[in-house]
Amino acid sequence: MPYYRLKDLIKAIRACKTAADERAVIQKESATIRTSFKEENNDARHANVAKLLYIHMLGYPAHFGQIECLKLVASNRFADKRLGYLGIMLLLDENQEVLTLVTNSLKNDMNHSNMYIVGLALCTLGNISSPEMARDLCAEVEKLLGSTNTYIRKKAALCAMRIIRKVPDLQENFFSRAKSLLNDRNHGVLLTGTTFITELCHQNSEALETFRKAVPLLVRHMKSLVTAGYSPEHDVTGVTDPFLQVKILRLLRILGKGDSEASEAMNDILAQVATNTESAKNVGNSILYETVQTIMEIQSEPGLRVLAINILGKFLTNRDNNIRYVALTTLNKTVSIDANPVQRHRNIILDCLRDGDISIRRRALELAFALINESNVRVLTRELLAFLEVADNEFKQGMTTKICLAADRFAPNKRWHIDTVLRVLKLAGNYVREEILSNFIRLIVLTTDLNAYTVQKLYAALKTDISQESLTLAGVWVIGEYGDILLKGGSFEEEEIVREVTESDVVDLMESILAGPYANQVTRGFVLTALMKLTARFTNSVVIQRIQANLERFSTSIEVEIQQRAVEYNNLFKVESIRPAILERMPAPEVKDETNTNRPTDDVAVGNSETGTLLDLAGLSNSGKAVETKNTVDILEDIFGNVATAVPTTSSKKDDIMSLFDIPNNTTTTATSNKATTVLGAKPANPLDSYTAYDENGFKITLDPSKDASSPNVLNIMVTFHNVAVGSQIQNLLFQAAVHKTQKLQMQTPSSTNIAPGSTATQLIRVANPQKTNVRLKLRIVYQTSPDTKIDEITEFSGFPQEVW
Amino acid sequence: MIRFILVQNRQGKTRLSKWYVPYEDEEKIKLKGEVHRLVAPRDQKHQSNFVEFRNYKIVYRRYAGLFFCVCVDANDNELAYLEAIHFFVEVLDAFFGNVCELDLVFNFYKVYSILDEVFLAGEIEETSKNIVLTRLDHLDKLD
């Protein structure tokens, strides 16, 4: 049975006990409505569309009512029009063809004498206008912007905004009308007008220039809002029209951005709003929040910026989660511009790590990492490690990565660095990425003087806990590598008691790992290799036999990888002559394979640390891969000369590489005494002359470019390091270079890393320059003049004349 | 800018949905479900009223059994939208006189016209309760 009134239908649907009942009722009713539509029953149309819209809201199909809505709109009765437009807004959107049929009705209604009908048309246009509609009705809206009726002006302003959002070309039609909107005395018109102009300025730089002249006017509006006494019309808990204030502040932000004059003009009012706005309620805080954002984006005075950061600091102590949330979000945005004022609120930010709301914790965490620098790395890392212990598991992997990267970048010394990573492994060893682990191992290998300390620490750690996978892996590897040092014991400063470790203790530990519940194929593989290496480090034949027995046991393992290792190692015992040589200590692990086909020696230790440190600096652990890709291209180039096709495919990766080189400049400015001295020196007549790239403290570096004989696109640069008057030997010289991303760079091993006074060393670098662009080198020079004075400088060189490249 | 406004009850039944950007019907249904699942289980006391949602933010406020959610751009002022929701609810309250969920169900078409007097084209349009109520009064007399 059909329900005649909307109310009855709603009641019937509400009375349904099950979803199936509801569906049945609605299907039946839909069918009746459909029939009624077909019969062109004009009297029932209004009620039917109303019912249909309710059905639509419940999520049932109702598109067959679209045309009926158009018919309602064409009616002369206001009630019909109203429902018709409502139906159009609900059942149609800008992407539907039927909408074009509405344009004409809208046009007629916009010219209607009844302001409410005009209002309905504007409302519909504003909410669902398509680009075509925007074009067709632009003139009407423009006219209505000048209406004497505030109700219509207000709506027209937002329609104009919708129109230019859909069709930016139509902006110019509104320029002249838009100006008058800002002079409007009506709050509603001012509000929507400001919104419209914000959009206009956002899109169009010409408009931006024009409306910069309106800054004093906007400031006056702001002032009257702030100083006005109680105005019941627009009061929200004691604040006059906060919505309008927020909109004006937002417009001021766009106008003041990048323009010192406009910024200057709004400084005072911003200060006034920032100091006088009541911060006890959400309303006041929404204004303060907008003010802070404006202050941070325009060219405001330093004092004002401090004020803004302090407001955020105060927000952080607020008990309302919403306020803390916006404070942290905003601080996250500003910290990248200037971290120093934010540092003062560090403790509060750290407190937020313990907040009950996970999104607040997440933001606080991001912010805490952004705040780490050389001077606070110890304190902050301690706090973050403490938090790591209790952090949600979903945070852990990100945290371990970021802590290790921060440690890489800012570690005050190696000992601290090792301790920190070790602590990370202990606390969250199951949430550590592979790169972090391999970085750690490289760190240990490169820090030879702390080997004894590290191996003992790891041994002790494994004795107490073998449940953290990464800790186990690192520990097992290091013990295998430095088993002999572990046995030697010896104390390392401090009062910690050094354990006496015997060879069988070590094997006990390894066996316990193998037998433990946490062992997996990777750990087993690590343990087997470590055990094998230990046979070359240990002397006790009983223990070695025990190891052999262990290896024997795995030669029937069902895991192919493990079985293969075990079998191979067992066979190694049969070739005693080469076994110790094979099991010698590993050279420092390579991140970047130098891949020089013509590399003279296999002298690994010197050349490879370069990329390592660069990566460390850049703090991008996964970029190792990118570097490798680059190198494969280099190989190709070595083989085929200039491989142009390789360039586009790898371009994105090279961007990464370039960004690597860009980062150290920003991050280490205070740490190292690097001077970005751009050498754009005078260009000598002879193109293949020698160029000085660096000459400081008696240390001089010259570059001798020459074309590569085999490939015209490759430039060979012989770098010569002169110890002219350093006064002592240059030690541990590390020379790094970067080129523009359209070029590729290859570095050969230097002839020596130590240079005696008065002598020189050389290193060949090759630059592939297929696009023949200027060769600009970014150089980093690190060396020591005595064990405790390390010099670290960054410079740029772009002085090659065009003939060279 | 507001992308859409949803009013849902605790069971996830939609009492009002207003879309200022076009979405396909299926997408709308998906969005309603996602927003409900995101917002309903949140802790009233210990969590903020903002949730990240795709590339946008949901600003929501709960009144008795109803969730008023607006989806806004990521750089919009959350606090102001929170206030705007409250303003809308105050208007509803004044219009219906102590509004409850059933008022919204039986007068859903009126709720839409109230909404259209407060928000237009995804932006707030009027911030004076009196003006909105007077207009609504006039509109109803015309019907």
Unreliable parts of chain B: none
Low-confidence stretches of chain A: 593-687
In terms of structural class, how would the helical and strand content of chain A be classed? alpha+beta
Q: Mind telling me the C-alpha Rg of chain A?
A: 37 Å
Shape by Cα distribution of chain B? globular
Give the topology string of chain B: H per helix, E per strand: EEHEEEHHHEEH
Mean pLDDT of chain B, rounded to whole units? Answer: 92
**Continuous helix count of chain B:** 5
* Major sheet summary line of chain A: 5 strands, antiparallel
Alpha carbon gyration radius of chain B: 15 Å
- The largest sheet of chain B has its strands arranged as 2-1-5-4-3
Total count of helical runs of at least 4 residues of chain A: 36
Task: Report the count of strand segments of chain A.
Answer: 11
Number of strands of chain B: 7
Structural class of chain B: alpha+beta
**Largest sheet composition of chain B:** 5 strands, antiparallel
Query: What is the typical, i.e. mean, pLDDT of chain A?
Result: 82
> Which two chains form the greatest contact, residue counts included?
A-B, 64 and 49 residues
Helical content of chain A (DSSP H or I, runs of 4+): 55-70%
Keywords (chain B): Cell membrane, Coated pit, Endocytosis, Membrane, Protein transport, Transport
Function (chain B): Component of the adaptor complexes which link clathrin to receptors in coated vesicles. Clathrin-associated protein complexes are believed to interact with the cytoplasmic tails of membrane proteins, leading to their selection and concentration.
Protein name (chain B): AP complex subunit sigma
Subcellular location (chain B): Cell membrane; Membrane, Coated pit
